[in-house]
Fold this sequence. Notes:
Chain A is built from nine helices and twelve strands. The first copy, chain A, has helices at residues 3-11, 63-80, 99-115, 165-175, 181-191, 197-203, 217-228, 247-256, 272-281; strands spanning 34-36, 42-52, 84-94, 119-127, 131-141, 156-160, 209-212, 231-235, 263-267, 286-293, 297-301, 307-308. Chain A has a seven-stranded mixed beta sheet, with helices on both faces. A four-stranded mixed beta sheet of chain A has the order 2-5-3-4. Chain A starts with a helix and ends in a 12-residue tail after the last strand. Strand 1 of chain A pairs antiparallel with strand 2 of chain B.
Amino acid sequence: MSLLEFDVIQKYFSKITNTNNNADIPLAIGDDAAIVSLPENKELVICTDTLNDGIHFPIDTSAYNIGYKALAVNLSDIAAMGATPKWFTLNVSLPSVNNTWLQDFTKGLADLSSQYKLDLIGGDTTRGPLSITITLAGHINKGQALTRSCAGIGDKIYLSGCTGDAAIGLATSLTNVIGDTADDYFVNRLNKPTARVELGLSLVGVANACIDISDGLLADALHIANASQCGIQLNLESIPLPKISNKEQARQYALSGGDDYELIFTVSKNKQQALDNIIKKSELTITCIGEVVEKKGIEVLDKNKKSIQLSMFGYEHFKQ
Amino acid sequence: MSLLEFDVIQKYFSKITNTNNNADIPLAIGDDAAIVSLPENKELVICTDTLNDGIHFPIDTSAYNIGYKALAVNLSDIAAMGATPKWFTLNVSLPSVNNTWLQDFTKGLADLSSQYKLDLIGGDTTRGPLSITITLAGHINKGQALTRSCAGIGDKIYLSGCTGDAAIGLATSLTNVIGDTADDYFVNRLNKPTARVELGLSLVGVANACIDISDGLLADALHIANASQCGIQLNLESIPLPKISNKEQARQYALSGGDDYELIFTVSKNKQQALDNIIKKSELTITCIGEVVEKKGIEVLDKNKKSIQLSMFGYEHFKQ
């Protein structure tokens, strides 16, 4: 630990604790390692994501949004497992110590972590090109986690919210035409995604398979299909579209744009009633967009149930 | 997950499993998150370290050594807690996909992880300047972890092996004068440090405080002193020196050089017999180098028990 690291951790990161729960976290920041315990009958769910400057966010993204997003994308993975997020470690590589930047970054991180009462338990602060890695852990009852591999043939497929917004936000950011209220909405969806943690929690015992959308609706639906050794059929007309005037473009964004962090999940017939209750209580729009089928791979059907070429949706073009 | 990521993970990283212990790790690589369980009466000990190209290793360091060292420095943190290492996550940022590099990197990682039967349970592979983050977890019986903060006044201070070797290795690497057998030894100590995992495990219930030496003997001893709210007095004549001809330089390296990953620990009088038994069985040289005292800070005494200026040892110069 260099002096730089010690100062930065003391000044900024050591304050990101929200539970003060010494029973669960006997030792947090400040030793060679942190110590955590796990309540009986719980399993630990662990995910990790790295965000690199200019790769995972445009170079002029604010420090606040970088801090917020670095945690949000991990929260989304925990949400997709149906787990309750608990604590995280933070690795930050910085070209130099810029106090304003660190203050804003920490605020973005703290604003989101306080919503979920997360504790920052450790990490590493080093010199290097700007890069953020967060490793986030959550709890779940043993054997209850939602995975990608349990979709059953005949399950209906549901999507929370709308995909494509973040990709429009990215295009808007890169062309620097921000200023319009609609543009602000899309850029905000890119920079401050909302992880669907509460929805994920409510789906435990109801959904068979679940994944969060980071690579795009088609790409991530395919991950469920492959992991579950089945196929997925989506109905184009059912898929919610981002609110832009060009419908063809909206469809491309909805099906192939990444970074939205909505959830796709599958539900069998006998859990339909339970899902309806969740939908009624949820503030989110939850839409049935297709079905799990035997034929492997992914297929998109038009309103006449005819299969559409996936290249129509710029499937490769938007792939990151 | 991009195609690049999927391919790299499938081809290289998914094979780094050593336990096949499904009871402890119900779900590893391949979903939104991994799932791990924790045996009753155990706590989880978690650490994380980032290595950046040109900052934490010279730019021409081999991929094998980068893989090996990225895990070794984390193992050293787990060793300093007295815990048994179990599983890790791996975040790799790569400028491009170079198969030879990835093969060698994975071999370095796998060679070390197999020694400790570690499982790679998840991670993130992205584009970006070369950077490796490993988050490593271990188990320990509840309340048994060795920390920095429990040194007691009157405790003797012990050091495993010898410090300064890695800093000599770094100087040798940077000046490109490698080739001499002695040089090879030092460069090897820099690139393939040996985490003192077995020693750490044997110190549980015997040592009061423990830390691994990454920043240098003086700097890390000071971390124990500060965390334990006491002082540390080192006897210069007792400190083992790296085997180079210039004794003054050897002392500077021994006291201020970083990256050796030896352990410093403190033992109270009533545990002296237990420690003697450990020393007898250990293949490592373990040396008493000083004592924990009331007066805060760190002090180095000459053979006449006179205090020596720390600047004599290039204390600031070698600080990273």
